[in-house]
Amino acid sequence: MCLFVDDSSAVRAYHASILEEDGHQVEFADNGYEGLEKFCAADYDVVLVDINMPRMHGYDMVRAIRSNERGQKVGIVVVSTEADSKDMVEGYKAGADLYMVKPVKPEELKRVCIMFSRTKGEGNDTGEGA
């Protein structure tokens, strides 16, 4: 299961269409605080998080997830418009496994969710799941 955290409803809808079409179960949050609450309440294979959000910055959310025992096992991917190398370094320092710059190609997004999937064989026709 994927958790996508982004303050843009258009971005959330776009990524939902890509991932759900591929058979992934996706939940959403529109800010870092809500994303952290959802993370604490459910098990996710991957958390995809934007950086510039209200209520809690994406880097702070990544740090908070990584400080949790369950947060050591989840894949965290930053998906941001911030393309400068200093932003990428900050994302990795916060604890992200990957840093992707928007717009993300649909096939790349699907591969990332499959890569962090814990349970293979659920979710789509290729034998790979989210």
Automatic annotation (TrEMBL):
**Function comment:** May play the central regulatory role in sporulation. It may be an element of the effector pathway responsible for the activation of sporulation genes in response to nutritional stress. Spo0A may act in concert with spo0H (a sigma factor) to control the expression of some genes that are critical to the sporulation process.
SMART domains of this UniProt entry?
REC (SM00448)
Q: Which Pfam families match?
A: Response_reg
Set out the biological process GO terms recorded for this chain's protein: phosphorelay signal transduction system
What is the name listed in the Swiss-Prot or TrEMBL entry for this protein?
Answer: Stage 0 sporulation protein A homolog
Q: Which residues carry this modification: 4-aspartylphosphate?
A: D50
Task: Supply the InterPro entries for this chain.
Answer: Bact_response_regulator (IPR050595), CheY-like_superfamily (IPR011006), Sig_transdc_resp-reg_receiver (IPR001789)
Which keywords, in A-to-Z order, does the entry hold?
Phosphoprotein
Per the database record, which ranges form the Response regulatory domain?
Answer: 1-117
Segments spanning the bilayer are none
